[in-house]
Amino acid sequence: MSSLDILFNPTSVVLVGAAHTEMKFGGVILKNLLRFRGKVFPVNPKYRELMGLPAYASLKEISGPVDLALVIRPASEVPEILRELNGKVKCAIVMSSGFAEVGQNKLQDEIKEIGREIGIRILGPNCMGVFNPHARLDTFFLPYERLKRPRKGNVAILSQSGAVLSCLMSVLREANIGASKAVGYGNAMDIDVSDLYDYLAHDTYTDVVVSYIESVGDGRKFIESAKRLSEQKSLIALKAGKGETGQAAAYSHTGRLAGRYEVFHAVLKQFGIREATDFDELMDAAKALSYQRPSKGRRVCIITNGGGSGVLAADECMRQELAVADLPEDKKERLGREFPNFFGINNPVDLTAQVTDKDYGITINALKDDYDGFLVIALPNVLGITERLGGIMKDLKESVKKPFVFHLAPSGISARLTALLEKARIPVYPSPERAVRGLRTLLDQQ
Amino acid sequence: MSSLDILFNPTSVVLVGAAHTEMKFGGVILKNLLRFRGKVFPVNPKYRELMGLPAYASLKEISGPVDLALVIRPASEVPEILRELNGKVKCAIVMSSGFAEVGQNKLQDEIKEIGREIGIRILGPNCMGVFNPHARLDTFFLPYERLKRPRKGNVAILSQSGAVLSCLMSVLREANIGASKAVGYGNAMDIDVSDLYDYLAHDTYTDVVVSYIESVGDGRKFIESAKRLSEQKSLIALKAGKGETGQAAAYSHTGRLAGRYEVFHAVLKQFGIREATDFDELMDAAKALSYQRPSKGRRVCIITNGGGSGVLAADECMRQELAVADLPEDKKERLGREFPNFFGINNPVDLTAQVTDKDYGITINALKDDYDGFLVIALPNVLGITERLGGIMKDLKESVKKPFVFHLAPSGISARLTALLEKARIPVYPSPERAVRGLRTLLDQQ
Asked: What are phi and psi of A318, to 5 degrees?
């Protein structure tokens, strides 16, 4: 097993700085580790037992090797702790803050050097660590009552910032997107985003990688890993610290220079790596990529029961350089024969407030070979829209085999209909424009 | 009373096309009218009683005048119905579709002419009509089970599109924003957006006007009304039909040409009228303006307990041309003495995961005279953040007297904390960037 395998799938873990109460980070982490499938060794000289586990006064007391060490003690103690780990563990996560992010670069250099001497890879310092639902491993110092974790799924999240990581996790859960792994890598002193990309490129649980980046360190190494990863999986990056203010904020946050954003942006674009502008776009893209496979083409068909919502979607298509191309003449005639004369047989197709569920099926079946992707808008505040639409869409999605997204406005049945659609792996968005941006993510393979 | 007063505050209403079942629009409207405080006359020749009200076979059977007529019969019958209304009503809403939006321009011209002849103002055709919670008037053909209405409040919504109107209403409700009025004015054959602006400029219930526009008809009249309105209230417009595709879609939707967007945009900008880019931005701006008064200045202070979230906010400030200006030196020293050395005493102020509620109070009190607006980010997944923060913020907001917005990530206590903050009229947003855009709306009076 490589060091990164051990980081994600240890069979045993030692927690240096374990505490008896959740009022301390070391207590929160220990409580979360109670769910872990492997063995846990809490270290704290003041206790013989912690949360039902035998506690160890020091590392020396633990006989035999342990896969992974978690360190949550004050920064000044970390060098000594790492020396004691020599020969005992294969990998370590240093969660403690108080290093380069507060100007303590020498202390950070010292622990980097110790890591090299004792031959282990280190994640952090100043980080949240690792969440791997498949191994029930969770090193985050955030209690479950405060941060519900997402369900198991195919999206890996990487974040330099623990705060953004926690926000990504809660929004993932709210948006019904499952996670394969999550890593808060903090100051990235040793294990950096490139190492994590290389690992995830071959992780069978992961189809999509969401990457929040403040700085990349070695730019060439980053680009090579990002290229390799995006050949295997869907990678979407959000670069923070874009302007001078943001860069300064990023520096004081993780002690690394953010670098010129323009260069980063140009390089990502050159290699066809997806980039989100902001947090919401990152999550909307992750949802689309988690549910469906990206494909080629720019021709989009919008089918709506609300004229204005269709116009807003068409406007966003224009901004996203998607073509809302006219319906072929023969299809116009065919749909014109099927539908009442007040339906709008154009693109967007306007099924009006007098729509019934089956009209969506008729439309999409008629047009499925004429477009590269479909946006379906159903405003379920009219009685013609029912939960049957979920089943109709599921069948259609299987026969259409093209990117296919949904916008539902909040209403009496929208929660149940959303659940049905998302079970059929059709992503549902809360506004027409966000739905278009989701669809664009699936159509950017040129 | 003017015709528009009668539109919003009739004492009696006749519904031509009332139905016995909610499976018909005329039945949904009648059911919603049961809540109305005034008198309701349902007209339908087939029934003697409808939903517990005496029904009338024709308009002739109703003795004496009625304030407002609602018409929901097929388009071809509308001219005759209007003629029968002669001398009987002061104002009418024609909800029926089948006019200019489907190429029946002659029919629309005919009913326009009849309205002029019989001396009444007409809203519509092809429209949703009026919602006025203060009069318990609701002419929308959407059942309550399908579209929950927003609570009473200070935001008026105007929309050409019934679909967008219904989406705005449900999002208003979800975002805890109250409505003063809502109007779906459809084809705007007679009463148009300018008339509605003129009315709302003097409506005491309304502080904010949210205006979804596909076309404006008489451009000069529109601009003059918009200018007058925005001198009295906060006006925010979303123009749909921006590109060629969107314009074509808008035309087939309401039968009016959308006009060149560039001209519209330039004129709005010239007169300092706020414009939203998309649906979400419109709602985020409405929330900010509904809760707080706009003011001058561009200097923003960001206070966060999550470094990365602060960086994302700083990036968005740059895009929105807000200045994340450095802390004054004396304040840096003062806060440096109060706080532990690992807190980031810059802008953004980073209170880290080790924050407690009171640290926000200390920070804002120290800096309240140094900035034009404040963005507070509290990621409530750490135990130091409790519901007490709601009370602290309420007191601070009163003493700061400047634009003041919040970003909370979803977590165990975020729903309760959001309720407390919004009761104190501090708008809460689900991402750092959306919070910045909300704050920008409050700081664009230059």
From this structure: -60, -45
Residues with Cβ within 8 Å of residue B420, at least 6 apart in sequence: B387, B389, B390, B391, B393, B394
Residues of B in contact with A335 (CB under 8 A): none
CA B7/CA B4 separation, integer angstroms: 5
E-assigned strand segments in A203-314: 208-213, 234-239, 274-275, 300-304
A160–B240 C-beta distance less than 8 A: no
* A365 DSSP β-pair partners: none
Residue with tokens 């802390």: B327
**Least CB–CB distance from A346: residue in B164, B248, B346:** B248
Q: How many residues does chain A have?
A: 446
- φ/ψ (deg, to 5) at B327: -70, 140
Q: Which residue has the tokens 């902001």?
A: A278
Which chain B positions have a beta carbon within 8 Å of A249's beta carbon?
A: 307, 310-311, 314, 324, 346-348, 350
In three-state secondary structure terms, B40 is strand
ipTM of the complex, rounded to two decimals: 0.91
Q: Tell me whether residues A306 and B167 touch, CB distance under 8 A.
A: yes
pLDDT tens sequence across A414-433 = 999 999 999 999 999 999 99
**pLDDT tens figures, A261-320:** 888 888 888 888 899 999 999 999 999 999 999 999 999 999 999 999 999 999 999 999
Which residues have a Cβ under 8 Å from the Cβ of B337 and sit 6 or more positions away? none
Nearest Cα of chain B lies from the Cα of A412 at a distance, in angstroms, of 5
On whether the CB atoms of residues B286 and B442 are closer than 8 A, the answer is no
Residue that wins the pLDDT comparison between B184 and B243: B184
Query: Is the Cβ pair A146, B248 closer than 8 Å?
Result: no
Residues of B in contact with A382 (CB under 8 A): 142, 146
Q: Do A246 and B311 touch (CB under 8 A)?
A: yes
Q: Are A18 and A54 in contact (CB under 8 A)?
A: no
CA distance A163 to chain B (A): 5
Mean pLDDT across chain A: 92
How large is the greatest C-alpha to C-alpha distance in chain A, in angstroms? 83
Looking at CA atoms only, how far is residue B88 from chain A in angstroms? 30
B151, B174 Cβ separation under 8 angstroms = no
Distance between CA atoms of residues B166 and B147, nearest Å: 7
Cβ within 8 Å, pair B315-A160: no
Long-range pairs for B75-78 at CB < 8 Å and ≥24 separation? B75/B99, B75/B104, B75/B107, B75/B125, B76/B107, B78/B107, B78/B111, B78/B125
